[in-house]
UniProtKB/TrEMBL annotation:
Protein source organism: Glycomyces harbinensis
Region (Disordered) location: 164-183, 191-211
InterPro entries: 4-carb_acid_sugar_kinase_N, 4-carb_acid_sugar_kinase_N_sf, NBD_C, NBD_C_sf
Coiled coil: none
Family stated for the protein in its record: Belongs to the four-carbon acid sugar kinase family.
Protein's recorded name: Uncharacterized conserved protein YgbK, DUF1537 family
KW Ligase (keyword) present: no
Ranges annotated as biased composition (Basic and acidic residues): 191-200
Record keywords, A-Z: ATP-binding, Carbohydrate metabolism, Kinase, Nucleotide-binding, Transferase
Domain spans labelled Four-carbon acid sugar kinase nucleotide binding: 277-442
Gene3D superfamilies, sorted: Four-carbon acid sugar kinase, nucleotide binding domain, Putative sugar-binding, N-terminal domain
Length: 451
């Protein structure tokens, strides 16, 4: 039976993808150790997700290649490369590393996640209908997005969409009416190929063969709806019958592929359990707005100067928050440059320089997030709260690793993009959330759920 390894650029994305496979009926978990545990030898459809923490890493290519090779050695039949849905970070290096480990397979890239407003249109990344660089992705203090054009972010990649009108590229694509013209032009690179497909009775016409034979680099696919991703997943599965394919995307495409590769769907929605502590390592403006809203509605908030505090001081500060008797948020203080640009009044995207952070600044911010996560884990082990939330992949990765858990089990979904995890060794429940999405009310809703 299929065993899928999700190699993710950060911990929150890994957890999102583990949830995606769990929703489709797979036995899914999140790897928290240094590598992969062997996949089961039984007939279970198993999926495991592992974070390389490669998004802001100078070692992204090598780290991704190592993770993919190790996953194959552990028994994975398929690799899914999870990247940021807004294209932030070391996208090209991650793809290059995975391709090297898999001997240069046909590579299909679609980071779209329409359920949370992230789409790909004409090869360009958009968030809530706007160019991705114009929103919080462009203002990210650690990995600011420098271009919305995926062909710029992944040199050598080409868009596989052309032509003003389209037709289905395989009879096996779902027959329901398309809610987007993009779906009808999947993998169509010229009008002659489309004409060949119209005249083909087989499951995968000569255009698919031409695509495989002619692919000289990664292919970028558009998607603006969940239906687009479903149809793309069917096409990927069809192509896999003839040659290895590396699928690259966010949790959006992971959800679609999980259903196509093996579908035994069940509802994994669970009520938000209330949260004792939220550890916020993300500096994303969207997260800062959420923290401000939650604090205004009763959460106690400690903004910690991680750069100047010792590890012992950080642990003590988080412990104090846990003993406050109220739901608590521990976050990193904004860097001085960000405080100046924001005027001390919270996130203002109009004043945040786009793409201004240097790589060294990103590495420094990553280390700060990791120190906060590790200190929070020590405080959690001492105080033993019931439920802990993590916002931001670097802090989540450091904290979950420091808790000493080899893996986390997917328990359900408490909100879109917010999986609930069970940690079997400590008995804790934890949830994770990426820093760059969600309305200002999201943290408040997670901390103070309405019963």
């Amino acid at each position: 039976m299929p065993h899928v390894a999700v190699v993710a650029d950060d911990m929150t994305g890994a957890a999102d993808c583990a949830l995606a496979f769990g929703e489709a009926g797979w036995r899914a978990h999140l790897e928290l150790g240094d590598g992969w545990t062997p996949f089961p030898g039984d007939d279970a459809h198993a999926a495991a997700a592992f974070s390389t923490d490669a998004r802001a890493s100078a070692d992204a290519r090598a780290a991704t290649e190592r993770a993919v090779r190790a996953a194959r050695a552990a028994g994975a039949d398929r690799i899914y490369l999870k990247v940021d849905s807004t294209g932030r970070g070391t996208l090209a290096d991650q793809i290059a590393g995975a391709r090297a480990a898999l001997d240069d397979p046909l590579t299909v890239i679609c980071p779209a996640f329409p359920a949370v407003g992230r789409t790909v249109e004409a090869g360009r990344l958009r968030v809530d209908g706007r160019e991705a660089t114009e929103g919080v992705a462009g203002a990210d203090p650690i990995t600011p997005l420098r271009s919305s054009d995926l062909t710029v972010l992944v040199p050598g990649a080409r868009t596989a969409l052309a032509g003003a009108t389209g037709a289905r590229t395989a009879d096996r694509l779902p027959a329901e009416p398309s809610d987007s013209p993009i779906a009808d032009r999947l993998l169509a690179d010229d009008s002659a190929a489309r004409e060949e497909d119209r005249s083909t009775d087989g499951a995968s016409g000569p255009h698919a063969d031409r695509l495989v034979a002619g692919a000289s680099g990664p292919l970028i696919l558009d998607a603006t709806t969940e239906g687009d991703l479903d149809r793309l997943a069917v096409r990927i599965a069809d192509l896999e019958e003839r040659q290895p394919v590396l699928a690259v995307g966010s949790a959006g495409l992971a959800r679609a592929l999980a259903r196509v590769w093996h579908s035994a769907p069940h509802d994994v929605t669970v009520p938000a359990p209330g949260t004792d502590l939220v550890v916020v390592s993300s500096l994303n403006p969207a997260t800062r707005a959420q923290v401000a809203h939650a604090e205004a509605h009763g959460a106690v908030h400690g903004e910690l100067d991680v750069e100047r505090m010792s590890d012992a001081e950080l642990e003590a500060a988080v412990g104090d928050l846990l003993r406050s008797g109220r739901p608590a948020i521990a976050s990193t203080s904004a860097p001085v440059a960000e405080k100046t640009s924001l005027g001390g009044n919270g996130p203002d995207l109009a004043t945040v320089p786009r793409g201004s952070a240097e790589p060294t600044e990103g590495v420094g911010a990553q280390r700060i997030a990791q120190r906060l996560g590790a200190a929070a884990a020590r405080a959690v082990l001492a105080e033993r709260p019931g439920v802990v939330g993590f916002v931001g992949g670097d802090g989540a990765s450091a904290a979950l690793t420091a808790l000493g858990e080899p893996r986390a089990l997917v328990a359900g979904r408490i909100a879109p993009g917010v999986p609930l995890l069970r940690l079997p060794v400590t008995g804790l429940a934890a949830w994770t959330k990426a820093g760059g999405f969600g309305p200002p009310t999201l943290l408040t809703d997670l901390i103070f759920p309405v019963r």
